[in-house]
Write a structure and sequence with these properties.
about 750 residues, 5-stranded antiparallel beta sheet, 4-stranded antiparallel beta sheet, elongated
């Protein structure tokens, strides 16, 4: 592979104008396709296989009017202190508010709080429900304006008026994560390379890759019915790996130029060696993201596959577009001072003075002197941070998790205070009586069983409502605890247990749905899928890394190190978002359950990035070992050449992800914090400390591979041995020089890294 990539690098360098035009043409083509593509049809969030989803599907089939599907607004009215909401002046304010909504085109129906008896027992609070004909994502701005105007009329009458539901979507400021990340990336790259061209090239190629990927996803969204959220993960990951991969190749190109090679030859060798690592790092990311399909949740599958396609584009850009841009840059990839200094040495026929060992090699030597202490400190420290993950409570955020400044949160709190905490999350029981001889008796049997749980989690049981055909009935059950309370989860399981007895006697089929049940089932489905997903992703990547590093223990160490870092990251998330530690520092206003998708999402995203760092760092060690270095010297060599790349890439990624911590939405804030923490722990603790400590203790056995396995594995030649032989045979542009040492590889020794 190294020889093949070497040829690609040189060809792209020579035909740089053609390569540039081809990529511009691709960008224009997908851009035109995206601009002319039809918008994907709105589709509900679906979770196949869980009971709560089956309840929704059954309602859609038998009683579509009851199933709804449109946006809802729950308008909450509270009278001034000491007054009743049904007092004449307050009642007039409620009626004025509801009257302002009359005639709104997208309103399907609304209730009157006084005729519907939705007034609290103390008489201070009432609520009205407004149903819309379309979902919240399709609701017109003018319709929302009418709703907000009606609310203002109620407030003008002296009432406290707040709106829950999804009709008024909370404005979520997600910050400027990508912009902040790109800005910090520019600074980090400028410091790393000391030249604006070298710093700008990875940013330019990453933006091209993300642009092609996102435009392609948009162009195909209507064809494949992709959701609007599909491109979110693709943009985040595409930007991350795009910078990483270009950074690695540009760094190697500069190193080759330092050895006196001509620019074309340097580009070919950079793509042939560093490009091999990019290909296999990209494959691990693609495996991790594509593996999300095993969870069998359409939204996650779409996001994973879309992000994986963006990674593939990033790899192609790195292998072709980067060497083409290097052709335009030539030796200007160095700063002006470096070029002048090189010219002076060339005129004098001398070599640059030897530089001191860089920080990467100094750190590696420190770890090699104290491997046991470093290993124990790392494992114990990460283990301590990971302990809270054992008490992780999974769920989905509701209005109770929104900032207290939002109207949704204030409506939630008023309803919980006046109607009970379970009022914000009622359960919906759907009774299929199509196969029963006495439908009414079957429904009453189910209600009777549920009523036995009053005082044990059930606050109230509503009356049953039959559909027109008489073969389906529904009724609400209000828990005595809040939607995200663990006691509500216990109640859902208790209800399913008792209704099973009734169904066995009558032949009916009862499904427990509603938002709390949907969240509980969703969390359980993701929890059940986590281990199979881990086994698939880690297993496939393990096999891939065996072929890359020709070792059993190195891939095993990489996988175990990742599991340690991701578990520690989950522990940190629990500390902040569930336990409330340092919540003020990160702007967490309300603690609660951890988002159900967080563990599997964190595994999928961070695994790919962690294996990137592993490949970038250990490839240099493998290359040094294969070419004669002793095991401990190989570790130092790998850090001398790769620590700077991993450090720069990790800082950039942490900056991108940390930018989302400033979001007002708790879910986005949690994702940003979790990803930033995971990258920090994996890059700077596991890869920088645990990896060299383990390799120091293993010595030569780290690179052991059974002979029978070595014979059957494909030779991917990530260390570029075949490339060296190819060039030595006279097929390259220049002869093979001596192996670079710490003294003459100045480019890999920037100050501070």
């Amino acid at each position: 592979m190294a020889t093949f990539l070497y040829r690609i690098g040189r060809a792209a360098f020579r035909r740089r104008r053609l390569v540039l035009l081809l990529w511009v043409a691709v960008l224009v083509a997908v851009g035109v396709g995206a601009a002319s593509a039809s918008k994907p049809a709105a589709k509900p969030f679906s979770i196949p296989g869980i009971e709560a989803q089956k309840a929704i599907d059954l309602l859609d089939e038998r009683s579509p009017d009851a199933a709804g599907g449109g946006a809802t607004a729950r308008i909450v009215f509270r009278a001034p202190d000491g007054q009743r909401i049904d007092a004449p002046q307050n009642r007039a304010g409620v009626e004025k508010t509801m009257g302002a909504l009359q005639g709104t085109p997208e309103v399907a129906g609304m209730s009157d709080p006084f005729s519907a008896a939705t007034v609290s027992q103390n008489g201070s609070t009432a609520y009205a429900t407004v149903d819309y004909t379309v979902g919240s994502d399709l609701l017109k701005d003018s319709t929302r304006d009418v709703l907000e105007g009606a609310v203002q009329q109620g407030k003008a009458a002296g009432l406290t008026v707040e709106v829950g539901g999804d009709a008024l979507q909370a404005e979520s400021s997600v910050g400027n994560g990508e912009i902040i990340g790109v800005a910090i990336a520019a600074v980090v790259l400028a410091i790393t390379f000391g030249a604006m061209i070298a710093a700008g090239l990875p940013l330019l190629t990453a933006i091209l890759g993300v642009g092609v990927g996102i435009a392609g996803i948009t162009a195909l969204a209507g064809v494949f019915d992709l959701s609007e959220s599909t491109s979110t993960l693709a943009m985040m990951i595409g930007l991350a790996v795009g910078i990483d991969y270009a950074l690695f190749i540009v760094s190697r190109y500069r190193s080759e130029l330092r050895l006196g090679r001509e620019p074309e030859e340097a580009a070919g060798r950079a793509v042939g060696t560093a490009g091999s690592a990019v290909v296999f790092a990209g494959l691990t990311v693609v495996i991790a993201l594509s593996g999300l399909a095993v969870v069998n949740i359409p939204m996650l599958t779409e996001m994973g596959l879309a992000a994986a396609s963006t990674v593939v584009i990033a790899v192609l850009v790195a292998l072709t577009f980067v060497p083409a841009l290097l052709g335009f840059a030539g030796k200007r990839i160095f700063g002006r001072k470096d070029r002048k200094r090189a010219a002076r040495h060339a005129e004098a026929g001398t070599r640059p003075a030897a530089d001191k060992p860089n920080m990467g090699s100094r750190w590696a030597r420190f770890v090699l002197r104290h491997p046991v202490a470093v290993l124990l400190t790392t494992v114990v420290g990460l283990g301590a941070i990971a302990v809270p993950a054992a008490s992780m409570n999974l769920g989905l955020p509701d209005d109770g998790a929104k900032p207290t400044s939002t109207t949704q949160r204030q409506a939630y709190d008023i309803l919980a205070e006046n109607f009970g905490p379970g009022f914000n999350g009622p359960l919906l029981l759907v009774v299929d009586t199509a196969k029963t001889s006495n439908p009414d008796a079957a429904v009453q049997a189910v209600r009777h069983e549920v009523e036995t749980l009053k005082g044990r989690g059930v606050a109230s049981v509503g009356e049953a409502v039959q559909n027109r055909a008489g073969h389906l009935a529904t009724f609400q059950v209000t828990p005595s605890t809040g939607p995200s309370d663990t006691k509500t989860e216990t109640l859902v399981h208790d209800i399913r247990s008792v209704v099973e007895r009734a169904d066995s006697d009558t032949g009916a089929r009862t499904l427990v749905g509603g938002t709390p049940a949907l969240n509980i089932d969703f969390s359980q489905k993701l929890n059940d899928a986590l281990l199979p997903y881990l086994a698939l992703v880690v297993g496939l990547a393990f096999l891939l890394l065996i072929a890359v590093f020709r070792s059993i223990l190195v891939p095993l160490k990489a996988a175990l190190g990742f599991l340690l870092s991701v578990t520690a990251a989950l522990g940190a998330v629990v500390m902040v978002f569930q336990w409330g530690w340092l919540n003020g520092l990160f702007g967490v206003e309300q603690t609660g359950p951890i988002m159900s998708m967080m563990p599997i999402f964190l595994v999928g995203v961070v695994f790919g990035l962690a294996m990137d760092y592993e490949v970038f760092l250990v490839t240099g060690m493998r290359e040094a070992f294969v070419h004669g270095a002793k095991p401990r010297e190989a570790v130092v060599d790998g850090f001398r050449h790769g620590a700077r790349v991993v450090t720069a890439a990790a800082i950039i990624m942490i900056a991108v992800f940390a930018g989302f911590i400033g979001a007002t939405d708790s879910m986005i804030k949690m994702i940003g914090f979790g990803l930033a923490a995971a990258v920090f722990l994996d890059a700077f603790v596991v890869r920088m400390a645990l990896v060299p400590a383990v390799l120091a203790l293993l010595g030569k056995s780290a690179w052991w591979l059974p002979k029978w396995l070595d014979r059957i594995l494909p030779n991917v030649d990530v260390e570029g041995d075949s490339l060296r032989k190819h060039i030595a045979a006279g097929h390259g542009a220049t002869a093979e020089p001596r192996r670079p040492s710490a003294d003459d590889d100045r480019d890999r020794e920037p100050a501070g890294v």
